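Treating backbone geometry as a discrete language has practical consequences that deserve illustration. The sequence in question and its structure tokens are set out directly beneath this paragraph.
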Amino acid sequence: MRNLIQKVKSLIDRSLHLNKSIDHHMQVGSSIKPHGRLVAIKISPKEVKAVNEQVAAIIKREGEITAVRIADSTRQSVSANILPGEIVDFSIQGRSRQNEDGNTDVSNILLARLNLDGANWSDLECPDQVDARNEQGVDCQATDGELRLYIQVTRAEPDGRIWQALGKTGLTSAQIPAEGAADALHKAIEKKAVKIPPSQRGQITLALDATETVSHTFRPVLKSFASRYGSWARELRFNSIWLVGPTVSLTSRLDE
């Protein structure tokens, strides 16, 4: 427990220092105050079967998540906040994931979320090399008895400039309206839908990876997406479309 507390404190301290250095007007530190509810969560192996350890600090106000801080043993740190006027921000410090890195982690979180609804998905496989299944839009697959779940993973934030900055400097951030984050989700889905024929979409579960861009999982973003793009997402007729955050509680279906 002492180690967990020390990690959370270090995580918050690093996050505050990071955001002050990124942009002086981003008063991220104001989110970490006693008037909110701070919940520290050590990510369960049932959610993420990874070699690194993660700790998340989550701020809730009136039952709604308004800020998140995450740190892991690879020295990557992530922060996200809801600011006044339904503005969301995120910042990421650390190593940029390359190519298919993270597919297994994202898929494990998704399986844990699906299993909460009564499924029993297991035996996840995420091949390292491209094979015939990848050409059909499959990165990972899992089983539930005779059933098969085919998962395609893509980043929830498709703006390449954000990931290029992270790769070059080890630091990236953005501050955007909730509607802008919802637009990013729409663009990410659209890019995959163009590549996957309608005849194959019914077999594909699309997983938008927001484990780093946690701001995209906040309720104002989900509400904006549902009101403007919900019907469109359903009409694409994927098996399902999920926005996958770093925990099960931050993972939501987008096409319902």
Q: What stands out?
A: Residues 14-51 have pLDDT under 50 and may be disordered. The first strand starts at residue 37 and ends at 42. Helices lie at 2-22, 103-116, 132-135, 160-169, 178-195, 198-201, 219-235. The CA atoms of residues 8 and 143 lie 35 Å apart.
